Amino acid sequence: MSSHYGENIQLTIFGQSHSPAIGVTIDGLPSGIPLDLEALQQFMNRRAPGHNEWSTPRSEADRPEFLCGLHDGITCGAPLTAVIHNRNTRSGDYDSLADCPRPGHADLTAYLKYGPHRDYAGGGHFSGRLTAPLCIAGGICLQLLAREGITVMARIRSIADVQDDTPFLCSVADKEFPASDDAAGARMRQRIAEAKADGDSVGGIVECLVLGLPAGLGDPMFGGMENRMAAAIFAIPAVKGVEFGDGFEATRLRGSENNDPFAVENHRTITTTNHCGGILGGITDGMPLVVRAAFKPTPSIAKPQQSVSLTEGKETTLQVHGRHDPCIVPRAVPCVEAAAAIAVYDAWLSQQKYKEVPHGVE
Amino acid sequence: MSSHYGENIQLTIFGQSHSPAIGVTIDGLPSGIPLDLEALQQFMNRRAPGHNEWSTPRSEADRPEFLCGLHDGITCGAPLTAVIHNRNTRSGDYDSLADCPRPGHADLTAYLKYGPHRDYAGGGHFSGRLTAPLCIAGGICLQLLAREGITVMARIRSIADVQDDTPFLCSVADKEFPASDDAAGARMRQRIAEAKADGDSVGGIVECLVLGLPAGLGDPMFGGMENRMAAAIFAIPAVKGVEFGDGFEATRLRGSENNDPFAVENHRTITTTNHCGGILGGITDGMPLVVRAAFKPTPSIAKPQQSVSLTEGKETTLQVHGRHDPCIVPRAVPCVEAAAAIAVYDAWLSQQKYKEVPHGVE
Amino acid sequence: MSSHYGENIQLTIFGQSHSPAIGVTIDGLPSGIPLDLEALQQFMNRRAPGHNEWSTPRSEADRPEFLCGLHDGITCGAPLTAVIHNRNTRSGDYDSLADCPRPGHADLTAYLKYGPHRDYAGGGHFSGRLTAPLCIAGGICLQLLAREGITVMARIRSIADVQDDTPFLCSVADKEFPASDDAAGARMRQRIAEAKADGDSVGGIVECLVLGLPAGLGDPMFGGMENRMAAAIFAIPAVKGVEFGDGFEATRLRGSENNDPFAVENHRTITTTNHCGGILGGITDGMPLVVRAAFKPTPSIAKPQQSVSLTEGKETTLQVHGRHDPCIVPRAVPCVEAAAAIAVYDAWLSQQKYKEVPHGVE
Amino acid sequence: MSSHYGENIQLTIFGQSHSPAIGVTIDGLPSGIPLDLEALQQFMNRRAPGHNEWSTPRSEADRPEFLCGLHDGITCGAPLTAVIHNRNTRSGDYDSLADCPRPGHADLTAYLKYGPHRDYAGGGHFSGRLTAPLCIAGGICLQLLAREGITVMARIRSIADVQDDTPFLCSVADKEFPASDDAAGARMRQRIAEAKADGDSVGGIVECLVLGLPAGLGDPMFGGMENRMAAAIFAIPAVKGVEFGDGFEATRLRGSENNDPFAVENHRTITTTNHCGGILGGITDGMPLVVRAAFKPTPSIAKPQQSVSLTEGKETTLQVHGRHDPCIVPRAVPCVEAAAAIAVYDAWLSQQKYKEVPHGVE
Fold it and tell me: Which of A147, A222, A354 to mutate to test the interface with C (most CBs of C within 10 A)?
């Protein structure tokens, strides 16, 4: 199940950081849907490395090549497979990692699970590079959701101790640095620059909204929107926490504060606040869905760190070379959108099955 | 998929708060394993209502009745089904809820998804009562894990603003109030009592440790331990956030602070700190797995709240009667253990498939 | 996966022949659908034992008791669980089987797979009795399909060497002996009576039609209607072959004979023959779906047979006592309908997801 | 689910006959296993077209290109993806099929399901060409099974009315025409040649043995070996029936004839006959597993056939051009081995989870 997601669309992500190619297969897409490949590329570009001071200088075009499932830019109903060939690989950088795992990385656990034949170069299948095929799939789901009037948008909510508490009112997709408040964004960039100067890294929080959602998506218990979205978002490397609505802060509120009062607006039940993040009992209530993902600081840092030699079984000091982001969070923003879009579109398809039931799901 | 979980064991949870019975089927259990039904009952009792001032006075024996899969207390390889008959139901309490959904509850979304024929009594399939079958399954998994030397233990980490920051060194399963530090526990109980006195409720955080885990459990991407555990834990009603290791706090650290240095101990690689919560790249590293779940305050409160009449389509004031916990968190402690045990046992079974691979998974 | 089926509805079957109860959980049913419980019972009665000379005299009421998911006879959207309590158990009959497996039965393989703790009484989870919950689920799916104008009907096509080659034009559900041609049916009953008189048994073929199917159900490759239906029908004990349309006979035809010519009727493409059994490329073409299942002769026979003592590891002669059908085929007719209905309804739900796609699936 | 198979390995097949590439992803393979790519290629060659008079002259190298999951020919634990680029495509041949579906083909149902944007060229995703990635996956599983002492071998059992009833004692993989008895093989080739001369086609039956299987593989009900194998084998285009052991013939036997007597050999229980085809109750008994697949005659024939114009909605005569096999059966032999190997390896992995259970599964 490692690389699979979905009940109605079925996603399969494959590839290693330095294998000939990485890619994704999506099965279950509707047929006859034109995809805007230019828009998809622009979405991919938001994730792509090498464009600014806070990301790795590794420069990959990250242009999806469609092997099947798409004909003249229109889905044909067959599984869609898109790959990205890995061109700018510099595996030599990683030779020292064969023996010496990077703290905070999957290097050790990949070795413990898969043994000496795991692909360690660039983190192998555990590399953040695998978020590129995630974004191909997510970018396609974003377009399918947009056809239904559903919008997914994410922003940086915090970097290190700098928080952007302004309301999240409009997309930041066009900004070079995807924070709502540019003043906060400037302080965030400063934290990143400071960390970079120290050979260190910082983390942060990405906040994502889903707007235009119909009520009734998601299922009880294990099929809740929280379960579905967490199962997708935790696939992004470095995510260590996921919360909905007020999330961990809600634990400090009283019920009378946290319960969202119901009201009627345009003959429809709404909530006058949204502490629950648009989800009650695992099911969307028609208000904006709010989810936040906590990203740990990038584990690859230039500072010397204590590691071990796997072959010699003794401690050693590791100095990581190669190209790394001092902060992954800005590039993670579209990844969270992608994971959210995948989970939401899958749940949306699920609900379509019952559209004709007599009681009339909205 | 609403009521299903698992790749290797397959869990199916069924029932409504006031249906004739609730229960669970677990398929994929090994055959020939004696279950300690007394220990299972004691585990169930930790979740059961009616035993103290902070839980609902609804008194259910919560005694699992085994319909199949168990023969003389020993698993026989066939799917195991256990049910609990709902005896002490007082559905009359809920008649007013047919028209008037409780804020913060699934009443509204159940109506929007399933229409007028949803079972609203006691929250139906969305009731916290469904954690009883979750605990049957989890209690069985706890016993199976114990055979492998794996222990799961949870405690209250915080209630409202009261936090227990003492180290989590030993089980609190025998305590009436499951906090590590009794002084903090006393303050937590006070917060609960205050809320109850006000006809209100409070939330909190449950922290769970998994000890004795072998390295190598979990899979990359969607199959990571974080994904698997979040997908199980979010099935517990009122959970709005899940984090691993330092979780959201890790976003404030630098890489050099958050990366756990590797060291060698007894010919085995360990980490000298555990900010990552025992999971790197989705895969266990052999250190304690640390997960925390944020519980919102119980939505059912005595205070009048603003709701709507579903039939009349206009706003109204709701006063919830019936029996409710002013704080669900103490009873949620075994539920988190149950969900964690289910996810871990399922991942453990998954890894068994590769035990004989030449490189020798630990 | 042993007891699970379905992508859109999720079936879980549980129980052993002599456990306290057997049953089924169906998740994913639409909400608000009234079930005709009387019709369901009549469907169950067609499978129930004890009503005539060719079935076991074990008399079970086989009345489903609904634990949840159904409210006043109307589905409520929550998982539906129905159980049948095993009352008329005579486990003493089976004591000798603990050591001595019945040839042709799962007794040996259950022992080899599950060890000494498998439940051998009455065949345990492998008993034909588990087709009762299959029929509960199938009977419900039949009613859901009927709402869409889809009919499933099966008949005996052959018993031993007696074949009914008359066209299958109308349901035989009301007949005591479910063959289309009563003369052939009389000869079939004679074969059964002869076998019974000899302490022996006979097998046969059940043929099933699905009428009123829309075109477009099923998916390519592993998701084909053949794959889906075979995966369900092989769950019925004693089935050793499944074929569609002309099936094995098609291997003797030439392409020009086997290809079904297309024609236009009422602005719709039809085939003028139906060698393909209504399925092309795994997908329904709108013509009647035709499937046949081969049932081996009942393995439980009164004649002495060569077996082994599992504990002593040496050969021995086994004489099976207890109650057994000399021919399972008449009672298998509703079971095949049930399995077919489950597979078809699951595929039908799958297709609903794409109903609104612009090209307009029929 | 159309292109997915497996519980423990997860197969995803993608591609269309004339898309840029076709391929397969296999997730869940053990790490550290060297694959014999030369042997894999030889296996692929048995399926490849263009080598003799009974197959289409379309000549594709069918050389898998490994995009990931394999490092120096050794599995690395990450999902393995292999693709074959479609080079020798002649889509012009298929232009007439856009409007006029070939009888016996998926052309009509693909149109009805996916609409005008389905990829009709060469049958699109429904093409027999998709068995090439099936054979990549199957060829890998064959090698993994061989490491466990498990052998899978298939042969032609019949073509049209010519049957090879000689015992299936050894592999025919090295034969140009894969029948056991060369005299029967010569008559089969004659039938193919006759059909070809008539612009027609013939079908046949492929028989497959699995040797060296441990007892205990498979699960009851939906997880039986019959269900698992049928779900895989029906993915091969043109298969219209699947049977195990004596299959449909068993319906003519009495229980006393069909039941396989048990005996003891080398301290192990065997059966002295094998009417059940090595499967009792869905679970392997340690004897050879026997499965047969019925292949209909190739639907693409040169003879004029009655079809319809989809756009004009009226009947027309179709003459199929392009390259087609007068008999697909010889090339289907490795495909059946592939599907069987995939199903068996998946079931074998499943059973590994319980290897350490105290009762000692063999």
Answer: A354
